[in-house]
Amino acid sequence: RLVEERGIPCSLLPVESGFSRINVKIRAEEETALNGKGPEVTPAHLDRLWQQLETLAEGDFLVLSGSGPSGCAPSLYGDIAGKMHQRNIPCVVDATGKLLAGALSAHPFLVKPNGEELEDLLGRKLPDDKALIQGARELQERGARNVLISLGGDGALLVDETGKVHRHQAPKGTMVNTVGAGDSMVAGFLAGYLRNKDYGEALHWGICAGSATAFTMHLAEKEAIEQLVKGN
Prior knowledge:
By secondary structure, the protein is α/β, with parallel strands linked by helices. It has 9 helices and 8 strands. The chain starts with a helix and ends with a helix.
């Protein structure tokens, strides 16, 4: 309903039984997340998803984000990204663990782990930018084209497909709510990239979009993002 109110086309794939996943975020001195379990997804549901993906065409981007639904193999994002790669449709994978690891060989356009998720994936600590850059390059060796590492209040780091490293500090502001900040960063990155196909500009828009959402109780409005872009 909310995206339709904003004029965004939306095509959902309803599941006949089970409950929609409901997540509760508790705001106190530290944030606590209580993430509900979603409905079971059957092979028939996945068939409908594959049919819907067939409507994508060259020039589209596909974002695969979040945890995999119950009942799906950890290869799901890799399988989808592989099919899209064959059709020249760039994929963004914003996931963790096996879902992310399994998608790397499909050459996703972008992967976006945060620092802790990258450490978990590689099985070691990455204490500074030098170590993070090395970790990003390892994901590229495994197939990722661009690796964007979100670092919360410390900004973000991008190793692009040409090998260039981009580092951007977070804009100044009061952190109110981190829910949706990572998703906003992905959206901002793609919006920035599609302007001029420039990775530095893409990172700038990504960090500003993510920060703008962190500075508000809800998803940031366009005007708030643009204000940060112009001011940083």
